[in-house]
Structures are given as C-alpha cells and as structure tokens.
Amino acid sequence: MIATALGFGAESLLGQAAEIAMVGSFLGDGPWARSSGRWLMLVERDGRFELREAAVSSTREKPICGDVGFNVRAADAKPGTLLLRGFSAVRRGSVVAAFNGGSFGKFLLPGERLDLSLGGGNNWSLHAFGTVRPAVGAGRGEARITDYRVQMIGRGRTDVVFSLDALDNDGPPTILWAGDLDADGVVDLFADLRTHYAGHDYALFLSSVARAGHLVAKAASLTTVGC
User: Fold this and answer.
1) Which one is predicted more confidently, 69 or 19?
2) Strand order in the sheet with 157-166
3) All structural domains of the chain with their residue ranges
4) Least confident segment among 17-21, 59-63, 143-147, 149-153
5) pLDDT digits (tens, 9 = 90+) for 201-226
6) pLDDT one-digit tens code per residue, 94-122
C-alpha cells in the first residue's frame, strides 16, 4: 500500500501521547519521519494473536508519485501490520481475537450484523444501520447509503461506535479486526472509516478509554491518501 499520511494520534486518559501507525510504504512527510522506535505490533501466529514488542525503522525511499516517501518496517511484520504505543492499558502478550478481516476487512451493509465472541460466553455483536436509496443517475441496482452508523451490543448495553453522513460505494468503511487489546473483557475494534475509494481513515476503538455509559471510544486514528 502506498499512501500519504495526513496525521495520527490522540491523548490517552493519562495525558500521554497515544499513537497508531502501520507497516508499509507511505507518501509525504506526515508522521513517518518519527515512526522509528519501540512499538507494540499486533501479529498473528498459527491462528493466534499477540502484541509483541518491535523495533520499528522508518527510512526515506523514492516514491511512486510526489517528492517524499517513507518505508516503515519491522522484523517479521507484513505491510498493513498495526503498530501501537502510548496506551497505558495495552501491554505485550497474547490477545483474544474475535474477528480478523485481513487487508480488506468487512463492510457491514445496513441491516447486517457481525457476531463477536471473546470466549467463555462473553459475546458481543456489531449492527449496521443506514438509509438506502437508489443512486440518482447511477446504473441499475446501484444505491446510495446515508446516515450510516455501527452499533455495538453486549452485556445488555448498546453503544454507537461510529457514524458517517454518506458512504462511497467504491470505498465503504470496513471492520478490520476485533478483539480484546486491553484485556478488560470488552471488544476493541480496529476499523477503516474511509469515505472515498482513494483514501483510508484508520481508527482504533478501545474500551479502556471509554467514558461512563459508553462501551468504546476512539483512542487514535491514522489518515492516508493515495496518489
């Protein structure tokens, strides 16, 4: 994936800078020049996930377009590997995963649900809602989705994870990964909230930073744009 980074980061509840990044090639200055250092990376081995400490390096490279390019890499990490640092509740070790959408993720159509289990009867689900209308001037069968939102349900509670005014049919939002990153028994999510086919708006939702009455909250984000 070649992309331009517009920015990432958030403040944790403790006031520490909490960041996400990804392994891969990226365009522009963005945050990549300071991506070198120690991170936790989310890796899969034999069907199991773990957060592993990694030394990440970021070096300049010739871009396929534009003037500046960076390559972010870590040993044994594939392009697209999620990197995290600065989250006080996220620590190295094994991680319970409930869903792995791979590089492309899963788009939930309005009315669709995704069941998630952390094991031991600890079950959760995501539900998508939205308004679907025929797209004006589009081909037969094409529709426009507006007022889109995804809700999480579990333990007798419901919370809106994210909402978008309108979707791009060629680049809809996707759920990339779900599991328990902060080991508190509540599902955390990594999603791409893109609204255009040429870009990505990655977001990490953690239960450990959620306010009272909520299940999760956006803990950090990373926005990229292609050539």
Assistant:
1) 19
2) 113-117, 123-134, 143-154, 157-166
3) 2-225
4) 59-63
5) 999 999 999 999 999 999 999 987 67
6) 999 999 998 899 999 999 999 999 999 99
Distances in Å between the Cα of 14 and the Cα atoms of 10, 18, 53, 61, 173 are 11, 10, 21, 36, 30
Q: Spell out a b/e string for 23-34, using b for 16 or more CB atoms within 10 Å of the CB, else e.
A: bbbbbbebbbee
**What gap in Å lies between CA 58 and CA 77, rounded to an integer?**
13
Q: What is the pTM of this model?
A: 0.88
